[in-house]
Every structure is written in C-alpha cells, then in structure tokens.
Amino acid sequence: MHMITYILTFKLFLFAKAGKGFLKSIWEAFAMAKKAQSSVEYLMIIGVVLVIALVVIGLSMFFTSTAPVQEEIEVYWATQVRPLRVIAMQGYYYSSVAPTNGELALTIQNIDSKPITLRNIILSPYPVASDLSVFSNHSATGAASTGLIGYAGPNFASNPNISITLAPSEKVSIFIRGNTTGTYFCSTGNDELHFRKTMSFQYDTPYFTQNIFTGIKPMQGGCNRIG
C-alpha cells in the first residue's frame, strides 16, 4: 500500500508541475486504488489522493491571486478611485543620458462634481530626499526642458509646490522626473521593463485642503526606452 501511495504522490506532483492533465491524474489514481488488496487500503489511498489534490489546487489559487495583474491595476486606477483618476500611465527611461534616469507620464481626470486642485504627488518606494519635478510636457532626451509646473514628493507634504486645478471631468497630462542622480522609475536592461510604485495624491477641494488619497493597488506599467 505504501508503494502505491508513493507512486500516486509522485504522479500527481508531475502533473501539477506540468500544469496540465491534473484531473486525468486523479482519475488514474482512483483506478489504481481499486486494485488495492483490501477496502482499508482503498480508502487510505483515496484519502491520500484527495489531500494531495486539495494542496495542489490551494497552492495554484494562492500563486495566481496574490499579485494583481496589469489589467486589474489599470482598471482600478481608471474606474475605481476618486476624486482623481489615472486614465493612462507610461514609464520611460533615457539611454542616452543615464539608464537610471527616467520619466513617468500620467493622464489624470477629475471625476468629482466640483473643482479639484492637485497639490502634491508622493511615490514609494522612493528616497525621501529625492524630490520630483512635475512637467507639462514630455522630454524625448531626458534633458531639462520648459514646462516645469513645480516640485513634488514627501518634502512638500506640508508646503505643496504644485497647483493644478481641474474642473469636473477635465483631464490633464503630467510628466514626472526625478531630481537626484541615481533615482529612477524603471530598472535598466531592455525595452520590456516595468515601473511599480505606490502613489499618493494630495489635493484641495473648495471646502477642504490637504486631502490625501493613497491607492490600494500599485501604480504599474511598461517602460519604453527613448533617447
């Protein structure tokens, strides 16, 4: 009976590792169990098979549900947050300047019924001492350019430096860059990179100031190399 149990366990492991034929392996395991010499052995083998099946199914569900996929993240930021939603996001890194320099492009929309003024943006993980520059235009080279709106980051939480007022349903595109050497949005290597940051908005309404919203899902997307 022990030999049959070992064979069934190994067989189920192989099918689970291959990611296919799992139900077929369970059926074959039951067929082998019927050939056991006694009803006690039959029941014990069935018990072992069921336990292994539950463990494999549980592990597969765990690993497929712990990390949010890109589509879930985009849907969350574009449809589920308020009062400011991010309807588009894109990361860039500049190979001609330095692989670790980059830019994060966001298109933000006010979905509230009253004007909203964006006052600060905080990204994490990000060095506290590294402030962010917020521009109104995209840079194709990574060099400094016109269109600076102001500065953002943890250092400006109590004294916001940017002021972008959006009327109800209005959209605005902003481009965020790091100011400190060695700070970056995308990792180095190739064109299939991704950025992943926790993002907080600090904003004012006509009635309240210094409101803070932090997304429960990360800000995440692909990075394109330019320059």
Description:
By secondary structure, the protein is an alpha+beta fold. It folds into 2 domains: 2-65; 70-226, Immunoglobulin-like, CATH 2.60.40. It has helices at 2-18, 22-33, 39-65, 70-80; strands at 84-94, 102-110, 116-124, 132-135, 148-152, 164-166, 171-178, 193-204, 211-214, 219-226. Strands 1, 2, 3, 4, 5, 6, 7, 8, 9 and 10 form a 10-stranded mixed beta sheet that branches. The longest helix is centred in the N-terminal third of the chain and has 27 residues, at 39-65. It is elongated and about 85 Å long.
Features of the shown structure:
227 residues; Immunoglobulin-like; 2 domains; 10-stranded mixed sheet; 4 helices; 32% strand
User: How many whole angstroms does the radius of gyration measure?
Assistant: 26 Å
Q: What is the CATH topology descriptor of the largest domain? A: Immunoglobulin-like
Total individual domains? 2
Tell the overall outline: elongated
| Total E-strand runs | 10
- Class inferred from helices and paired strands: alpha+beta
Low-confidence stretches: 15-20
Main sheet summary: 10 strands, mixed
Number of helices: 4
**Strand percent estimate:** 25-35%
- CATH architecture designation of the largest domain: Sandwich
State the order of secondary-structure elements, H for helix, E for strand: HHHHEEEEEEEEEE
* Overall CATH class of the largest domain: Mainly Beta
User: Helix share of residues?
Assistant: 25-40%
